Amino acid sequence: MTDSHTTTTVRDQTSALTDVDDPESAIDPVKQRVIGGSLVNVCDEMGHKLTRMSYSSIIRESEDFGCALLDERARQIAETDSTPLQMGPIPAYVSGVIELFEERGETFAEGDVILHNDPYYGASHAPDFAVVVPVFHDDDLTAFSVTTAHHLDVGADKPGTCIIDTVDAYSESVRLDALKIIESGTRNDTAWQLIEDNIRVPDMVMGDIEAQISAAQAGANRLQDLFDEFGHDTVKLAGQATMSYSERMLREEISELPDGTYSAEGYIDGYLDSDDESERDLLLAVDLEVDGSDIRVDLSRCAAQVDGRPINMPFEGTVVPAVLLVIRSTLLDTEEFELVPQNHGITRPVHVHAPEGSIVNPRFPAPTIARFGPGNRLADLTLKALADVVPEKTAAGIGNLKICTYSGVTDDDEYWVYMDITSGSYGARPTSDGLDATDTLYANTRNNPIEDIESHYPLRVNRYELREDAEGAGRQRGGIGAIREMEFQTPGRVSIEGEGSKYAPWGFDGGEDGTPGAVVVEDEIDESTPRSKMSNKEMDEGQYLRTVGPCGGGWGDPEERDPEAVRQDVLDDLISRERAERVYGVIVTDDLEVDEEATAERRR
Amino acid sequence: MKILGIDIGGTFTDLYLVDNVENEQTIHKVSTTPEDPSTGALTGITELCEATGTAPGAIDYVLHGTTIATNAVLESDGVETGMLTTENYRDITHIGRHQRPQNYSIQQEIPWQDDPLVERRHRKTVPERIVPPDGEVEVPLDEAAVEEAATELRADGVDAVAICFLFSYLEAEHEQRAREIVEAVHPDAYVTTSSSVHPQFREFERFTTTAMNAFIGPPVTDYMSRFKRKLADAGVDAELHIMQSNGGIATEELVAEKPVSLLFSGPAAGILGGKWRSGANTPDREANNTITLDVGGTSADIGIVADDEIVEANVRETEIGGYPVMIPMIDIETIGAGGGSIAYVDQGGAFRVGPRSAGAMPGPVCYDRGGTEPTVTDAHVTLGRIREEFFLGGEMRLDAGGAADAVEASLADPLEMDSVEAALGVLDIVNNNMANAIRSKTVQKGRDPGKFTLVAFGGAGPMHAADVARELGVERTLVPSNPGVLSAVGLSTTDLQYDYISTEFTLVADADHDEIQAAYGELVEQARTRLRADGIDATEAMTIEMTADCRYEGQGYELNIPVGADGSLDSLSTIRERFDRAHAAEFGHSFADNAVEIVNERVTGYGELPSSELVAVPEKAHDVERHALAEETVQFRVDGETESRQTPFYDRRDLRTGHVVDGPAIVGEKDSTIIVPPDFEGRVREYGDIELVHME
């Protein structure tokens, strides 16, 4: 191992350089503003490069990637605005890399590029690769520039990454444990070849890794420019001041809440078609304690880990980001606190505990690749616990998502793999209806245009529309889920990693529950068989698969809903006149007007 | 040849009359009449004609920049709009890309769900389906269903109909046929199709753009016909030409078909003006590389000219009011930083400037119209940089004490700094915001801003020009004469411009040169026909540009590269190499082993209009010092330190070619103020532009 530095351990390299007690007072407020804005600008540039250079639609269209700058102690200073589930775990990835380096006696060197995906060392799950570029100043390690991205295929036992029956961490991907794919500027060709040989669609995935590297290196270079422009110590100080500001803002909001413990619990589908009871209807429970300006989240009541089923959630890479996302999005909702930056400061007042060996903190080598749905449900239950104490900042239960991998082999014996993220919906809010057919909570990706999918894969999107007569009724109604139907033009396979087909999104304060989602396979599985997962299922030419997104929960008594709002939904064919009367007590006439008198009578 | 430029802004309508024969240029300003902007414009035209002794009938061209389309979108002031779309896809414009605008918000709204351009009840589906790759008809158009839907929409009181079918960019036949049926059933409706608005893949963006086109179609066409009628009544018989977002001028008939092409009409004219002034000061053999910085009361608009070409936006990144719009347009970066931007200390104690603005009403504190929060303009006043007697020709009273008090109470006290530091801080922050916005269009795209000329205009641009230039390492900064009306001036420098596009996914390696040549041939013919119809007959006045949007196979973003000239396509190997080079320049990396895919074929036709001549300013007769009107104490930041400097004030009208104003100095004129910091000097150039040069 060559090392151009005199330090012998990574611990020496990551000692804090300019940590001060009160960074906000130590820096000129004008400089803090100026540098703070520039740091976000750098992250946005990284994101811009990554989307435009990347190959797979999961990165370039769905934006399932993250970019951030961290200090030498793996504290996030700034991030771009892609999906939270990619950015939240970045500090855990870097901490994992540091930990592995310490264990192995390795150190960082200028020109290194490190590839990492181990969920037991901070990764969110194996398909999300991090590219970590260390940044040096005067030979001292001072920062990290990091990109994360979801890869289309990572060398697991089946095509794609929506795999629901991996047995352990080794069956989920080619394992990348803090691997220097570029060492002091020299490419490790053996490592590249090994990765390439283990991936079904190497052109796309290797191209995407290159894009991640370019973006991370660009971030490192721009950070150096900022050091040159403002002085290294001042930039570091500005980073600390920004973190301190965000922390202070969150603490102020937490302090407003009455001390006490607020709880919520609910179930995930798990494997609804499994004969083994321990694999389905699994309990998740959140006990959230407010104590002064701190929040402690205890997850001790959650189900035990599921051995041999990949719905276990990596603690640092999935569970912690899920909880934090909800606390930030409610107490510091950007609709009201637009300018509070997302960084390490947000994490300081929040302490999450989960016992080892549980589904929310599994022991190695339990599989974790399909942790997405359970994690988003955990976020949903954190929201429910908060609804107990600050209802005005929350929403009713959300509709969870399904991630689908479509694949096949072409006439030229080449694999094609396409990944499609379906939408969920939001529960109703205290003063407004829920958002329809959107990604929820810790996911915020984009769908792929139908005109792009059909032009590049042997698939036809037969239908993409909102559901009707299925909304979670309430004074404010829940958001409405979408129906998406995919037909195979040539024989192929499909895998689905979903949640929310059995348990409906919860209603709040008298609002009705929403409606669960569904998975339907033409001629084989209909909506009466709750199903949210599917493993590499064979599909015939011309056969379709329909995914139905859940509808979010309602808020408040449906009979208190403004009759005019009910009529508007009738006009839009979202609910029938019959449902308007039965559920909302609103009589809509043949002329599609509200019969005020009959409605008052009905609602009495 | 007499050319009249009219730029209608929120507060003022600027007019600019050029007489190429007499070499005369006249500027006129009237108040904008918001209820019908054409009224104010006509008042201006009449006054301008009287003042210059011009017969209205002698005007050859009327060129107009307008915010009418922009306002209709932003103020949701369109008509009840209906949509016909493919059966089973009723909610494409509602679901969008299923992404939320904000990552960390539970209470947010999604613009296209909260305030839809077309409500679900007015989105009617009809059986039809076209499929890739060749646009084959899989399900024929159900004409009876179209007729029924159109009848329902008419009964529902819909005034405009957008026809949006999947894959119509491959085969427009269904949309065209549906259009005919709708027009027959509902002859009073404004009807538009997605294949005519922008035939490019990505259905949500295309359908939304088409819906927006329908939504604003009636108000924009009404406005155009009113404007035309008033011009005729006033005796102006020149044809009306309108500035489009792509920086070209189109006839009023074309604009009526595609009003969405006007969304950035106003700022586009300014960028043209900036490009023209920069070109006038660029040595003949050098390429024009320019950053335009147009700073008004609430926002700053930034545009880029690289190698003589105005940089166009990627259609995937353009939006207005949160809605995507898929229309060729100049790449304009707009940020909430202007003279009226409010400086404040937020609830967490951080120092912020903008994007909230005091606007025209109440305006900055110093305007004394009820504003209480300090703005960028108040910071300048507090530092002594704007003085009543030199501001807006001395016509407006300035409450300097009020400005200083507001800076002290709202900023200096809570931040525990003195007022001068707080005021300088406001400028540091707002200048940095502008510099970052410029970096996002230069450094982020592999362009070194140091090699560009910065042209600063708008009422507030010249106050920030030098500081922004210093921060970016820009060597040449220009403040054109009459910086407040440069958009109207820019109008007179433009050409006719029409864009044509065709989507076809083709791998360059597998492509047949003749087939692609033929596809371009069709587009080129459309462009030529259009230009001929506008009276551009001479070949030398007509330029045809051929480009392609290309990507490596599998990528999702395209880069636009030139692929030929005069209707003739370059060799496929040349195109391939050019794409590799473009990719390396933009992203610092190219993939020589990967296949290159052509996604869109594009043709742009330009028709040259007579251009504005440059008018030289007389040489200086006296030393510049003789023109100093006063000398006052002004605060500056010099090498990070705050310094009070005795600073001369000049009236720009007194300055002549060859004058060099040493910093610190302030040069006032009717519609703007130029700040020359201590480390700069201002040189008056041949055509009246003042060049700000950083002295090391």
From TrEMBL, chain A:
Q: Which residues form the Hydantoinase B/oxoprolinase domain?
A: 28-558
List the residue ranges of the region (Disordered). 1-24
**High-level lineage:** Archaea, Methanobacteriati, Methanobacteriota, Stenosarchaea group, Halobacteria
Q: Which InterPro entries match?
A: Hydantoinase_B, Oxoprolinase-like
Please provide an example of a Pfam family that matches this protein in its UniProt record.
Hydantoinase_B
Q: Which domain of life is it from?
A: Archaea
Q: What protein name does the entry list?
A: Hydantoinase B/oxoprolinase family protein
An example of a Gene Ontology cellular component annotation for this protein is: cytosol
Q: Which GO terms describe its biological process?
A: glutathione metabolic process
Q: Where is the composition biased (Polar residues)?
A: 1-17
Q: What's an example of a GO molecular-function annotation for this chain?
A: 5-oxoprolinase (ATP-hydrolyzing) activity
From TrEMBL, chain B:
A GO MF annotation of the entry reads:
5-oxoprolinase (ATP-hydrolyzing) activity
A GO cellular-component term linked to this record: cytosol
Q: Which terms under GO biological process does the entry name?
A: glutathione metabolic process
Tell me where in this chain the Hydantoinase/oxoprolinase N-terminal domain is found.
Answer: 4-184
Q: Which domain of life is it from?
A: Archaea
Could you tell me which residue ranges the Acetophenone carboxylase-like C-terminal domain spans? Answer: 513-687
Hydantoinase A/oxoprolinase domain location, by residue? Answer: 206-498
Q: Which SUPFAM superfamilies match?
A: Actin-like ATPase domain (SSF53067)
Transmembrane domains' residue ranges: none
> Could you identify this protein by its name?
Hydantoinase/oxoprolinase family protein
Organism encoding this protein: Halorientalis pallida
